[in-house]
From TrEMBL, chain A:
Protein name per Swiss-Prot or TrEMBL: ABC-type transport system involved in multi-copper enzyme maturation permease subunit
Signal peptide: none
Origin species: Evansella vedderi
Residues spanning the membrane: 24-48, 60-81, 116-136, 148-169, 181-204, 249-268
Alphabetized UniProt keyword annotations: Membrane, Transmembrane, Transmembrane helix
UniProtKB/TrEMBL annotation, chain B:
SMART domains: AAA (SM00382)
SUPFAM superfamilies on file: P-loop containing nucleoside triphosphate hydrolases
Protein name: ABC-2 type transport system ATP-binding protein
Keyword Ribosomal protein listed: no
Alphabetical list of Pfam families matching this protein: ABC_tran (PF00005)
Organism whose genome encodes this protein: Evansella vedderi
UniProt xrefs under InterPro entries: AAA+_ATPase (IPR003593), ABC_transporter-like_ATP-bd (IPR003439), P-loop_NTPase (IPR027417)
Domain ABC transporter: 2-232
Length: 282, 314
């Protein structure tokens, strides 16, 4: 386990990423923008609301920042992970790396963790900004922890898909476009499908039938599930339609857990050629 | 040390390597010669476990590349024909990274890296960014990288390609040192005189097939490549030319320098036949001043082989 987290590929990736000043400029810019949005939100509310900032408004600000942060994760993760292997291939450094004693799993997992480390740093560096909401109340520390947990899980889901695309697709640009397409489908695409399916629910309800599909698709949608952490009522309606009491988190973590494991297993398998001996035909 | 058995690589209907059988013993420097697209790099990539053969197998240090690729990777040092480097690393960090990738401890790396930098004449560049090194220096650094885990076998695909003459000489000297260290080396190059100088044996590959293998002189003998002879006469050029043209084992007689009296011809006989020819010329009263055999180099041998292969193909 120690070798997995302290291995040379991970060490190299982190060292090279943080050697460039661009990484630090990126973090500073992001925090400045997020800070300006938070302070701007407070300023606007204060000016429209006669100089008061209520806990409900603090809650709205928290939701705004959280959804912004989730969008950042969805937008940046494909860019960070969609080229981890293909860019090595394009720079012609991959063959040399593959002839070292590093196992395929070590290379793939190190690449994933090192790419996500930067995004995790950005997200966790924003934690002090979140603390502003505690000044005004309306949000529990558990909600903040849950949102950070979900950011990390979302990064792992999209990151694993990105690493797989980067391993099986030779060109970085195509691997990135593929990862972005899948990430947008899992977020926006599934949300649209959920909405479309919900629009048919009236017919089923009139006939007294249970209608499970909006619940299933909503449970697999990252933004809906993220939102449900703060607004539980959103899933209650879907549960009512489905007609059973079943935690949507089981579907969410079950499906995406399988996506993470499946994508990484396939990437590990595809990184090196499958060496096989076949007899020369006589 | 290195053995390939019926090694074949096909891409659809195209055969890159066909039924290749090589046997390279420990400590041998084996040169692979062939035109572009002959199958040299494909063979090297299969040996480096970067590609699976379609048929057959290969063994390095007794490990089957198809069954124990991880063990094979521990005993080989591979240098591809085209490679990239991590530009943001310093030369020493670059070697540390690969050393760690082979499981070397920090203490082991700190002991071996200065020695390797010394071997490849890059001691003064240990703190330079790889990005700032010249092509020749990058090639040498890549060679040092291939040696970091002290492999028994080196697979070097065109290690001197794209280098200027001075950098080529430096690379050749390093390879000679590696040979002296007892490494088993399989190397390809387009610079045939260099290969001839370094290699114990060579193999000529054409269209994925091994068309000749052995020492340079063995190949010459095996293929019955004719010698080139220059005879110097003090006069009577026409009679001398007629005399040599009349001999069975002599071919392509031509006058090289009319004034001095130099006649060049090919001779496909053995050494004793050559002695008999000289004796016959003396007895025939040809005014001989000199009789010189031109040594054929690897380039000539390669061209002869290619000519024969083309003729057979037609």
């Amino acid at each position: 386990m120690k070798s997995l987290f302290m291995n040379p590929v991970l060490n190299k990736e982190i060292r090279l990423r943080f050697r460039s000043s661009k990484s630090f400029i990126g973090i500073a810019s992001y925090l400045s923008i997020l800070g300006l949005i938070s302070l701007g939100f407070i300023g606007l509310t204060l000016s429209f609301d006669g100089g008061t900032f209520r806990p409900e408004e603090s809650r709205s600000m928290f939701l705004l920042i959280s959804m912004l942060q989730l969008s950042l994760v969805i937008f940046i993760t494909p860019g960070l992970t969609g080229g981890v292997i293909s860019s090595e291939r394009e720079r012609q450094t991959l063959p040399i790396l593959l002839t070292t004693a590093q196992s395929s799993s070590s290379i793939i997992l190190s690449k994933l963790f090192s790419s996500l480390a930067y995004l995790l740093l950005i997200v966790f560096a924003s934690a002090p900004l979140y603390m502003i909401v505690f000044l005004y109340g309306g949000i529990s520390p558990m909600s903040v922890l849950a949102s950070f947990g979900l950011y990390t899980f979302t990064m792992l889901v999209i990151g694993s898909i990105g690493v797989l695309a980067s391993t099986v697709i030779r060109k970085t640009i195509i691997a990135m476009v593929t990862t972005y397409s899948i990430a947008f489908f899992l977020t926006g695409g599934l949300a649209v499908i959920t909405l479309m399916l919900t629009s048919f629910s009236y017919t089923f309800q009139q006939q007294g039938q249970e209608y499970i599909w909006p619940f299933i698709f909503a449970s697999m949608n990252i933004p809906i599930m993220f939102f449900s952490v703060f607004e539980e009522s959103i899933m209650t309606e879907f549960k009512h339609m489905a007609g059973f009491e079943f935690s949507p988190w089981i579907i969410f973590f079950g499906v995406y857990g399988a996506v993470i494991v499946g994508s990484l297993a396939l990437a590990i398998r595809k990184l090196r050629p499958k060496m096989q001996a076949r007899e020369y035909p006589k | 040390m290195i053995e390939t058995v019926n090694l074949t690589k096909k891409y659809g209907s195209f055969t890159a390597v066909e039924d290749l059988n090589l046997s390279i013993s420990e400590g041998t420097v084996y040169g692979v010669v062939g035109q572009n697209g002959a199958g040299k790099s494909t063979t090297f990539q299969i040996l480096a476990t970067l590609m699976s053969p379609t048929y057959g197998s290969a063994y390095i240090s007794g490990f089957d590349i198809t069954k124990e690729p991880a063990k094979v990777r521990q005993v080989i040092g591979y240098m591809p024909d085209f490679f990239g480097v991590y530009d943001q690393f310093k030369a020493e960090e670059y070697l540390h990274f690969y050393g760690a990738s082979y499981g070397l401890s920090v203490a082991e790396r700190e002991e071996v890296i200065p020695q390797l930098l010394e071997l490849v004449n890059l001691t003064g560049k240990r703190d330079s960014y790889v990005d700032l090194l010249s092509r020749g220096m990058k090639q040498r650094l890549c060679l040092a990288r291939a040696l970091i885990h002290n492999p028994k076998v080196l697979i070097l695909d065109e290690p001197a390609s794209g280098l200027d003459p001075r950098a080529r000489v430096e690379m050749r000297e390093i390879l000679k040192e590696l040979k002296a260290m007892g490494k088993t080396i399989i190397i390809s190059s387009h610079i045939l005189p260099e290969l001839a100088e370094m290699c114990d044996e060579i193999g000529v590959i054409n269209c994925g097939q091994l068309v000749a293998t052995g020492t340079v002189s063995e190949i010459q003998t095996k293929l019955q490549v004719h010698k080139e002879i220059i005879v110097t006469v003090s006069g009577e050029m026409e009679r001398a030319v007629r005399f040599f043209e009349g001999e069975l084992e002599v071919l392509n007689v031509s006058v090289v320098e009319n004034g001095v009296g130099k006649i060049q011809f090919g001779f496909r006989g053995s050494d004793s036949s050559q002695q008999a020819l000289i004796k016959k010329a003396v007895l025939a009263d040809i005014p001989l001043l000199g009789f010189q055999t031109l040594e054929k180099n690897l380039e000539d041998v390669f061209m002869e082989i290619m000519k024969e292969v083309e003729v057979e193909g037609e």
